[in-house]
Amino acid sequence: MRERTGAPAVGRGAMQDWLLAAAEGRRAADVLRATDVRRSAVGLVDLASNDYLGLGRDPRLRAAAAGALAEHGAGARASRVVTGTTSAHVELEREVAALTGRPAALVFSSGYTANIGLLTALGDPDTLLVSDAHVHASMVDGARLSRSPVAICPHADLVELARLLRERRQPRAVVVVESIYSVLGDAADLTATAALCAEYDALLVVDEAHGVGVAGGGRGAVHAAGLAGAPHVVVTATLSKALGAQGGAVLGSELLREHLVNTARTFVFDTGLAPAAAAAAAEACRIVVAEPERVDAVHEAAARIAAAAGVERAPGAVQSILVGSPGAAAQAAARLLAEGIVVGCFRPPSVPDGVSRLRLTARAGLDLDRAVESAVRAAEYSAARTGVMSDSGAVVSDSRVGAEGSRGWGRWC
């Protein structure tokens, strides 16, 4: 035990030592991240942004945001259940429900808080939560906080999903998947998954963060699968990707909405989404319906990028190039950035060791010639990659099967 004196010791303490060791470990493993303004500078070829439909700078969204800013002020100023609900929130919930074909919507301050709020409001010791191994970190964190027993199903394994549901001891079950996965870019078989959930009396939660605005003519993969009206299917979405704004939403029945208003801690105890962001997202919903050519442009760009990169076309905007080691991925991304090309770089803990990758994102409004040239360059710099094609068409590594096991993409560790 350290001897206590009248004044604190000069120099590093135990926490400082731990932080320094953690930083050194990240550097040694080539997984150091940074918030570099250069990555968002004007004039770069942006193949990393999630602004799929090119609405983030659309003058109509800016005008809607400015109007809400003038009417309601810079922020909501309180929780939605106190004085933080404005007409902008009501309008957004109406528009996003109409876009996705769902009966009701509840808007949160982010997609992250929407996922955590939903799972913690549904979870308890009598509800089994079955999560696909590749779901987003927000779902992982929601499951951890849910108080539910959690089973992690190997990615897209419907046989194992059926077994887990069939053999459960809990009276209720919630199955969590993404419609389009954010790393490999592959799509869930929502029709088969929803059928299994109906057969075994489970609620299906589909994270449409990468589906709304991209799949189903922009209305999402759940809508495209004919499940928009299914009572046992719940959708979560972010408003910060294809819709170009900020915030998140849970879409389902009026009964579910009422439950969340009263029990979702990330809704009840969080200041409401800024009205300007809400108004911008509502305008984006209307644009998606009115301008389907934007969605078509995303898919044209995705096909061109995938072909240029030499990977099989993934169904969403994300096209993924396997690199292998974290260091090789970071070096390839840095080399591209030096040439004015920004790509996503996925390394542990986002993915397991051995399957680090570059992620190229298709968007409406891209200069396709420059995007194609950039994808060719990304493939060249990732030439050390090894792998095979999965059934979904995304590039994967043989080591992925063993690496994911029951622990997923490392975010469950």
Notes on the structure:
- The strands form three sheets. A seven-stranded mixed sheet has the order 2-8-7-6-5-3-4, sandwiched between helices. The chain has a four-stranded mixed sheet with strand order 1-10-11-9, with helices on both faces. It has a two-stranded antiparallel sheet with strand order 12-13.
- The radius of gyration is 22 Å and the shape is globular.
- With 413 residues, it is an alpha/beta fold.
- Helix 3 (87-100) runs parallel beside helix 11 (275-290) and helix 6 runs parallel beside helix 7 (190-199).
- The chain has helices spanning 14-28, 59-72, 87-100, 111-122, 137-145, 158-166, 190-199, 221-224, 254-263, 265-268, 275-290, 293-309, 326-338, 368-381, 399-404; strands at 45-47, 104-108, 127-132, 150-153, 172-178, 203-207, 233-238, 248-252, 318-324, 341-346, 356-361, 388-389, 395-396.
Short characterization:
The chain is α/β, with parallel strands linked by helices and 413 residues long. The chain is built from 15 helices and 13 strands. Helix 2 runs antiparallel to helix 11, helix 3 packs parallel to helix 11 and helix 6 packs parallel to helix 7.
Provide key terms for this protein:
413 residues; alpha/beta; 4-stranded mixed β-sheet
Q: Strand-residue fraction?
A: 15-25%
Level of helix content?
A: 40-55%
The profile of the biggest β sheet is: 7 strands, mixed
Give the integer mean of the pLDDT values.
89
Number of contiguous helices? 15
Q: Determine the structural class based on helices, strands and strand pairing.
A: alpha/beta
